[in-house]
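From the pipeline queue, job 12 of 40. The input is one protein chain; the requested action is below.

Action: predict structure.
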Amino acid sequence: MPSPRETTLVQEPRNIVEPIQERGPRFPGEAVDGGPSLSKTSTGQIVIVANRLPVRRAKRTPVVWETSPGGLVSALRPILQSRPSTWVGWPGFTGSVPKAFHHEGIRNRPLSLSRDEVQSFYEGFANRTLWPLYHDAVRPPVYHRRWWWPYVDVNRRFAEAAAETAAKNAVVWVHDYHLQLVPAMLRELRPDLRIGFFLHIPFPPRELFSQIPWRRQILDGLLGADLIGFQTHDGAVNFVESCCHFTTASGCGESMNYEGRTVRAQAFPISIDVGRFEEIAAEIKTKRSAAGFRRRLSGRRKILLGVDRMDYTKGIDIRLKAYQELLRSERAKQEECVFVQVAVPSRERVDEYRDLRNQIERQVGEINGEFGQLGMMPVHYLHRSFPMDQLVALYRAADVMVVTPLRDGMNLVAKEFVASRLDDTGVLVLSEFTGAASEMQSALLVNPHDTDGLIATMEQALHMSDGEQARRMSSLRKGVRDHDVFRWAETFFDKLSA
């Protein structure tokens, strides 16, 4: 289920922590006692409202919880552990859910979803209506009334759970496109709260957003927040333009007037835990794994690497086509280079994603059939997730990182690759249509729709001198280090609390 957890593709090693009591919680229905006091009279409380909880059930009996992988969880954990906090979200399974419980100093408030709600609210409205629309309609959005009303109902349940949980004058931070109606619903229930919202995906231009039949309701829902954060300045501008056109909001700048309140819309580019990636990249076992990858991929061949969720917005098919034509033109030979594509499984119950996987696998087979030799394939395709240490080893092994989404809110893979390049080697090929492009100008920026341009950029990357690599990578690494995920979270909280 995509949510903030999709801000990173790595799969962390399991860190299973027993709940805070002698006897672990049984599933369903038993709460955990202990942990920080969260009385209604406490001050300085933070409530996070997100589609998913920061924990997941480990496949063990009795049931215990483990911390979920993801950049958002990593970013917020230190802040949430330092003061009374609750995270409201879905635990990832249908049916009965346990009562609120503590895990690693954070109180979790699970919210249940039925199978029908998962199909209509999540698979339907969130991922077949909002997701394609917000990604420049790369695939045609589907507008069904039968999906809209479950979206409203689920958003209302999230808002009610947050209202019940939050102490007086608490700060509530709502996340992502699944829950765009929550801010207004929550404000109606609890006008004392300070409410923030952050959109992890792009917000489309007004001309596109105007297609959705429920445009006014979504904008009014978001305008219930005091501060609305976007990945890029363009996203904030698009939102403000839509608000000023379709709602009663006035003042088309970073601050709008809406129903007697000031609502701010600003860019807060998300990032990664740079120190953690650097630490893993420096480990001896990571260096050995990277060297092992290079040996298995035929020694001195240069490695082009793609790491993506299996999603039609990521441009995997276009980059494979460009690589095939690069080989056909003999501007690069398969004895000189190899492409490794990691495609992390995603939304496999949705038809478009199954079709995409079939298409990608046909392309890989075609390229390998055309150019492959015994013991030497031009494309290595891996349809699975990787533990974090293995992914960092891949980042270290690669010569060229190819990140070419057709549209992306940020794209943290680009930043993970840069953080892993401790010796300032390697080349980043980056789509102009990622949020990361505005911050990473020293990458080789490319229009992924321009196949000829992508071919030429891949060729340039493969032949870039060591000196130019070092100059570009040093600049990229400084930018990522100076703006890590902790700074992102702290900046948003500071603005929201001001």
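Job complete. Confidence is low (pLDDT under 50) at residues 1-43.
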